Amino acid sequence: GAVVSQHPSWVICKSGTSVKIECRSLDFQATTMFWYRQFPKQSLMLMATSNEGSKATYEQGVEKDKFLINHASLTLSTLTVTSAHPEDSSFYICSATESNYGYTFGSGTRLTVV
Amino acid sequence: TQLLEQSPQFLSIQEGENLTVYCNSLSVFSSLQWYRQEPGEGPVLLVTVVTGGEVKKLKRLTFQFGDARKDSSLHITAAQPGDTGLYLCAGARSNDYKLSFGAGTTVTVRA
User: Fold this and answer.
1) How far apart are CA B30 and CA B70, in angstroms?
2) Phi, psi torsion values for B39, nearest 5 degrees
């Protein structure tokens, strides 16, 4: 089946630094990739939608200059958390789809900003 | 306000009991999916339903999609401790590819 690889699985960084998270579709071409944020015991909140070769579409309330998304190819999307602060600590999850029937999720990245 | 209202938020039952999780919306979805998520991992797809009135069975799990494609339910028969986890419903509308998630149901099955 479809596999989405997300790296790193966890990262600890100092306040003020930037962190990049990668999301790769391993055996299919993802027309669209999504980035979610999840707080403990809560559901997934969509942050942005990205299509290969075009600018990401951010959900209301998500700062596009803070959460930079690059979708340079049909198999790779990256999320960069710039100038991270403790309140950015969260579980970030990507997903990829070829259509609106098949969504595959990455295993998530636990970001801790100290 | 979430597009999909999922209930209950928490469910704690004894091994062998049955449980049902509900997912309701005022919107029509082209497809609705159920996921199970373990702590520290991404959601894993259990099933996708696309036809109004559809019923799908996966071993002890039964999924229903409402006739109007606005609601769905997940029923687990004879729950086991291995069924413990966060269950999420998510719907996709025909006008875009975005998935809207319910708030999730934390299920705990006690041995």
Assistant:
1) 9
2) -55, 135
Q: By the 8 A CB rule, do B43 and B37 touch?
A: yes
CA dihedral sign of residues B44, B47, B49, B55: negative
Residues of chain A numbered 39-58 and touching chain B (CB < 8 Å): 41-46, 49
Give the span between the Cα atoms of A78 and A56, in whole angstroms. 11
Contacts of B59 (CB under 8 A, 6+ apart): none
B chain contacts of residue A41, beta-carbon cutoff 8 Å: 86, 104, 106
**Digit-coded pLDDT (tens) for A24-37:** 999 888 888 999 99
All residues of chain B having their beta carbon less than 8 Å from the beta carbon of residue A32 are: 97
Q: Give the HSE-up count for residue B42: Cα atoms under 13 Å, Cβ half-sphere.
A: 25
| Residue range A58-106, pLDDT digits in tens | 999 999 999 999 988 889 999 999 999 999 999 999 999 876 557 899 9
d(CA B63, CA B66): 10
Strand pairing category for B99-101 and A67-73 = unpaired
- Residue A88 and residue A113 in contact, taking contact as beta carbons nearer than 8 Å: yes
What confidence score (pLDDT) does residue A102 get?
A: 77
Residue A103, pLDDT score:
87
